[in-house]
Specification:
The complex is a heterotrimer. Chain A is of the alpha+beta class. Chain A is built from six helices and five strands; from the N terminus they run ββαβββααααα. Chain A folds into two domains: 75 residues, Beta-grasp domain (Ubiquitin-like (UB roll)); 71 residues, [2Fe-2S]-binding domain (DNA polymerase, domain 1, Orthogonal Bundle). Chain A has a five-stranded mixed sheet with strand order 2-1-5-3-4. In chain A, a hairpin with a 2-residue loop joins strand 3 and strand 4. Chain B folds into two domains: 165 residues, 2-Layer Sandwich (Uridine Diphospho-n-acetylenolpyruvylglucosamine Reductase, domain 3), CATH 3.30.465; 104 residues, CO dehydrogenase flavoprotein, C-terminal domain (Enolase-like, domain 1). In chain B, strands 4-5-10-6-7 form a five-stranded antiparallel sheet. A four-stranded antiparallel sheet of chain B has the order 11-12-13-14, with helices on both faces. Chain B has a three-stranded parallel sheet with strand order 1-3-2, with no helix packed on it. Among the domains of chain C are: 219 residues, Aldehyde Oxidoreductase, domain 4; 95 residues, Aldehyde oxidase/xanthine dehydrogenase, molybdopterin binding domain (Aldehyde Oxidoreductase, domain 4). Classes of the chains: A alpha+beta, B alpha+beta, C alpha+beta. Chains in contact: A-B, A-C, B-C.
Chain lengths: 156, 280, 705
């Protein structure tokens, strides 16, 4: 199936099986290794990417469903000012331990703030509830988002 | 080799369906997991895929004749943001799956999956929602309870698409939705209660009660609801044991990896009791 | 979410940005599944679907060129995974002992091709009767390991007892759910074997490879890749899958990578040992607990493996923070035809500490006294003898810890609240630092410190797996030498490049390895100005005052302990029995924090894992198959499931720890389960003797009468 979409602001045209998971397309065909496979069933959030600005589980998205859409991974997002704010917040708060869940949390944070620039702590926790972390116990991640909002005043 | 087609319009999609058999695919949140084959492998499909999530005709949410039409491919997150959707339905959708999954999933997908634990179903049953099915030569509208015939079974024909879900444009004065999972974050539903009622001067004008995940098909009884009409809410406390006894046989849960039949039954009855006793 | 803590005066405790965070945030950290090798092949493990059976035959389809089957016939050396007890076959021989046991690998260049071959493999089994539960194993006396130790005169204590109380407790499985599934790869470069993977103990894997490949140490290089979480789950397990890919690399002549599917990982990788602990308590005329008979039963699964050491820590932690004069402690590892249990944060201590904490709670309730006060009557003090007749040499700061936590949690006021379904509970606990018994002497850990002008490189075998080891160890060296941390390099943990300073386990990294680094850095500091280049090495030496009789389990099983208290506040919904842990207060004595934020990160993570084990992490097995075998059914806490956590420390510098630091990583886990259990017991007015505490359990409990 012919798949035309945008990946990190670059126009892409490929021919792949319609049922190919976006996760595998990104990792294996485009080398976007920041996107991780943690479970393959939409439960852990390690595979989330931005599709038209919204966080989605790439392990569940078939190639045919992304036609005409804009997909952004950390490889693209890390060059933005918004990323820098998230990075600063997360570094200061101690939000990163083993790091495997981290790309997913960065993406979900952007997805949240893009829609809701001034969330409450409960809204932050709810927005991140689709991302599992086994190392931190989440407190420092929520703090990281809070600091990102402070440091990224005006970006969202 | 799994092929796919992405038709440009609903009309085209229905034409294609009339000629060939496909597996209908919106964003894949159910099918891509059900057919998953493991690490770095593409899920298995015997038929080619018909992609429909992008069809604008299927995304509309609007009011007509005092009914709310929700397009089959309206994304859950967008339904939650729509101003015309009753708050209790937004609450229900907000507790489905997880935020990224809600950004992909569709209401029609949840209905067509027809799982006994399908979270949109108690509401649809409670409000007598209608499902619109279209093929290239026919349009049928039916009650959701006619659409779903058994667990995981619907009357959807091979050449048909669900195109709309129609619910009354109505907000009840009292709404309670309680959903139990294995934790507060995303999880499949162990049991749920949806209770809605219109109360005027202490009297029940209309009442709907539906239970999720405790029977093969959503548990709801119009007879019991009828019997509660015109009752005073203060009388409910004395009648509650009798009412629960009527609901008991409708609740037929199972033991599984997530919970026990005993717990599901007890809690469902507790939730009904709690709903009725706090209606005033 | 607030972290109220007293000002920590030690400069070393001042937090810095963790050195590995930026790369991870940018998605640039390379985990083993991100590595690509030229001409790489993928491997997938074919596993037993029977709990106990003879393998009569295996029908293998025609294998296309470029694909391979790798099995027991391809093992160059010994077909056993080297660990404490090397009983687990790398590839099944003529029998299988658990569902999920590896039988063979399908290896090839394309995953679809592998899948096609895989689905055509047909083993013929002759099923035998498995032992599926701890009860069955006990009935049949299927014991792998049987330990027993005594202290003073338990027979006399029981003969003279004014009251004897019996009680028993049980706990369930726990799966690590490290976010990065097991992954490992192997290749030969000339005749040297390289194994790369997600692991805690590269030298364990090296040893296992030496046996399996019949190769000398010099020809093997095991390299740790960025590890996405471990918690003990990557302690001994990589020795198994490491041998698998090495054997496959040898047979195929290609690099081989094997990344587990999450479902597969849950099905077959090691789990926390389910436990049963039975007590007989002898109370004297003052109602003091003067004698304990403890029987610890662990479900080790189909192979013993690492379980004897888990059992040791379980039985040596069985009296927890208490001074019990007379003891008879027995521990048994039982064999069942289910997947092998193994290392998991706490390593046997969580099971016995939960049990004894709730024993004290239940006895206090029976006596009509406050559980905390009853516990405090029996607290160990400095110079007391331990359960194995060793000596508590450190100052025991438990009174200060308790005072602090009682105050910050308002424990006694909240305890007065007798509203049903709301509860508060306290736990007291310790964790023995470093390897149990003779372990450290056996390892004889070695480190190297190399000065090259103004850059200092240190070489250790401790890995960064998210716990902050790289940051903490670099900080220790930098602070000791008084140079910027940017000038301190942590050598890649590659067995060809670093000495064996021991595995990254037992909460030993900061205290033992960090201690050795500090000692060596001090030596370097003295000679800093004299020499442009300098290489120093040191081996770990146990403090001379320690003595341990491994035959009779007498003496100092740990050089020192870390201590703590947790208070949990819970609320139960009376309609649905949903349990909410609202707050978790924690006060710890870990000596001195090396980096406060990194430490709190560990403590919060451990507390949440403990809450998960105690409440929502349900894993049972049915007919030998795990009932909850994927993340849809096995639930760990999400951001919406965590309590408000309050974490504080009490300083208690340890003479032999770097800057006074002791151990912390596992201590963080041990306290929250019994604190939650005690809070639920208070809320429900009933004893809580079993974990996990689910709404289903609470519903049954509430409807008993």
């Amino acid at each position: 199936m012919k798949i035309d979409f945008t990946l990190n602001n670059k126009e892409i045209s490929i021919d792949v099986d319609a049922n190919r998971r976006l996760l595998d397309l990104l990792r294996d065909d485009f080398g976007m290794k920041s996107v991780k496979e943690g479970c393959g069933e939409g439960e852990c959030g390690a595979c989330v990417v931005l599709v038209n600005g919204r966080s989605m589980n790439s392990c569940m998205l078939p190639a045919g469903a992304i036609i005409g859409k804009s997909v952004v991974t950390l490889e693209g997002f890390k060059h933005t000012e918004r990323y820098k704010a998230i990075e600063s917040g997360f570094l200061k708060a101690g939000s990163v331990q083993c790091g495997f869940c981290t790309p997913g949390f960065v993406i979900s944070t952007e997805s949240l703030l893009n829609e809701n620039p001034h969330p409450t702590d409960d809204e932050i926790k709810e927005a991140l509830s689709g991302n599992l972390c086994r190392c931190t116990g989440y407190n420092m991640i929520v703090k990281g988002v809070r600091l990102a909002i402070e440091m990224g005043e005006g970006l969202w | 080799m799994v092929d796919g087609i992405r038709p440009k319009s609903l009309k085209k999609a229905l034409e294609i369906l009339s000629e060939q058999q496909f597996t209908i695919m919106a964003s894949g949140t159910d099918l891509m997991v059900q057919r998953a084959r493991g690490f770095a492998l593409a899920p298995e499909f015997e038929k080619p895929l018909l992609f429909i999530e992008h069809l604008s005709e299927l995304k509309k949410i609007y009011i007509e004749n005092d009914e709310i039409h929700i397009g089959a491919c309206a994304i859950l997150t967008d339904i939650m943001h729509s101003e015309i959707i009753p708050p209790v339905l937004k609450d229900i959708i907000g507790q489905m799956a997880s935020p990224p999954t809600r950004n992909m999933a569709t209401l029609a997908g949840n209905i067509c999956n027809a799982s006994p634990a399908g979270d949109s179903l108690p509401y649809l049953y409670a409000v007598d929602a209608k499902i619109v099915l279209q093929s290239s030569d026919e349009k049928r509208t039916m009650h959701v309870s006619e659409f779903i015939t058994a667990a995981k079974k619907t009357v959807l024909k091979a050449n048909e698409l669900v195109t709309d879900i129609i619910i009354p444009n109505k907000v009840y004065s009292h709404n309670v939705y309680r959903r139990l999972g294995q934790r507060k974050g995303m999880s499949l539903t162990k049991a749920s209660l949806l209770g809605m009622a219109d109360i005027e001067e202490g009297k029940i004008i209309d009442i709907r009660i539906a239970l999720g995940a405790v029977s093969a098909i959503i548990a709801r009884s119009k007879e019991i609801e009828e019997s509660l009409k015109n009752k005073k809410t203060e009388d409910l406390k004395t009648d509650v044991a009798e009412i629960l006894a009527k609901y008991d046989p409708l609740i037929k849960p199972i033991d599984d990896a997530r919970s026990t039949a005993k717990y599901r039954k007890k809690v469902s009855l507790n939730l009904i009791k709690d709903f009725l006793e706090n209606l005033n | 979410m607030k972290s109220k803590r007293a000002p920590v005066k030690q400069p070393i405790s001042k937090s810095i940005i963790r050195v590995d965070s930026r790369a991870k945030l940018r998605g640039e950290a390379q985990y083993v599944s991100d590595w690509e090798f030229e001409n790489m092949l993928y491997a997938r493990t074919f596993r037993s679907t029977k709990a106990k059976a003879k393998i009569l035959s295996i029908e293998i389809p025609d294998i296309p060129e470029g694909y391979f089957i790798v099995d027991k016939n391809d093992v160059p050396g010994v077909n056993r995974m080297r660990t404490v007890v090397s009983d687990h076959p790398l590839f099944a021989e003529d029998n299988v002992q658990y569902i999920g046991q590896p039988i063979l690998l399908v290896v090839g260049p394309d995953r679809e091709g592998i899948d096609s071959i895989y689905s055509q493999i047909k083993p013929e089994y002759q099923e035998e009767t498995p032992l599926l539960t701890l009860e069955e194993a006990e009935k049949h006396s299927k014991v792998f390991t049987d330990y027993n130790y005594k202290k003073e005169d338990p027979e006399k204590a029981f003969a003279n007892a004014h009251r004897i109380i019996e009680d028993s407790f049980s706990t369930g499985y726990q799966e690590h759910v490290y976010l990065e599934p097991q992954g490992i790869a192997a290749e030969f470069k000339d005749d040297t074997l390289f194994v790369y993977g997600s692991m805690q103990c590269p030298f364990y894997v090296e040893g296992a490879l030496m046996d399996a490949m019949d190769m000398p140490k010099e020809k093997i290089r095991v390299v740790q890749t960025v590890t996405g979480g471990a918690f003990g789950g990557k302690e001994e397990f990589p020795s198994l899958n490491g041998c698998h890919v090495a054997i496959a690399a040898k047979k195929t002549g290609h690099p081989v990578s094997m990344i587990y599917d999450r479902d597969e990982d849950i099905l077959c990788s090691t789990k926390r040992h389910p436990s049963k602990v039975r007590f007989k308590a002898a109370l004297d005329e003052n109602d003091d607990l003067v004698g304990l008979d403890i029987d610890v039963l662990l479900n080790a699964g189909a192979y013993n493996g690492l379980s004897p050491v888990v059992l040791q820590r379980a039985i040596f932690s069985a009296t927890n923070v208490y001074h019990i004069k007379n003891l008879n402690v027995r521990g048994r590892n039982y064999m069942t035809n289910v997947l092998p249990s193994g290392a998991y944060r706490g390593f046997g201590a969580p099971q016995t500490i939960f049990a004894i904490e709730m024993l004290f709670y239940n006895i206090a309730k029976k006596l009509g006294v406050d559980p905390l006060e009853y516990k405090m009557r029996h607290l160990l003090k400095q110079a007391d003898s331990t359960c194995t007749g060793g000596c508590v040499r450190e100052e025991v700061k438990m009174p200060e810890i308790i005072e602090k936590i009682v105050k910050s949690s308002d424990y006694y006021n909240k305890l007065k609240n007798n509203k049903k379904y709301q509860g508060i509970g306290i736990s007291l606990f310790l964790h023995g630092c470093g390897f149990t018994g003779k372990g450290e002497s056996v390892i004889n850990g070695k480190i190297e410190l190399i000065k090259n002008k103004d850059i200092v490189t240190f070489k250790v075998s401790s890995v960064e797996m998210g716990q902050g080891a790289e940051t903490v160890l670099r900080k220790i060296v930098a602070e000791t030498l008084e140079i910027p941390i940017e000038k301190v390099i942590y050598e890649t943990v590659d067995t060809g490049k670093v000495p064996d300073s021991g595995p990254t386990v037992a909460s030993r990294t900061t205290m033992i390895v960090g201690g050795l680094l500090q000692k060596t850095a001090m030596q370097m500091k003295e000679r800093w100005d004299d020499l442009e280049n300098l290489e120093l090495t040191n081996n770990y030496k146990q403090p001379k005052y320690l003595s341990w009789d491994d035959e009779n389990f007498r003496g100092d099983c740990y050089p020192v302990h870390s201590w703590g208290a947790n208070v949990a506040e819970v609320e139960i919904d009376p309609v649905t029995y949903e349990l909410t842990v609202k707050k978790l207060h924690a006060v710890f004595d870990v000596g001195v924090p090396i980096d406060e934020r990194a430490l709190i990160g560990q403590m919060e993570g451990g507390v949440v894992q403990g809450v998960g084990w105690a409440t929502i992490e349900v894993m049972g097995s049915d007919l030998g198959r795990l009932k909850q075998a994927n993340l849809t059914d096995y639930k760990i806490p999400t951001s919406m499931d965590v309590p408000e956590i309050d974490c504080d420390f009490v300083l208690n510098p340890y003479e032999f720890g770097p800057f006074g630091a002791k151990c912390a990583g596992e201590l963080s886990f041990v306290g929250s389960p019994p604190a939650v259990a005690a809070a639920v017991a208070h809320a429900m007015g009933k004893a809580i003797n079993h974990l996990p505490i689910t709404p289903e359990v609470l519903m049954e409990m509430d409807n008993e009468d």
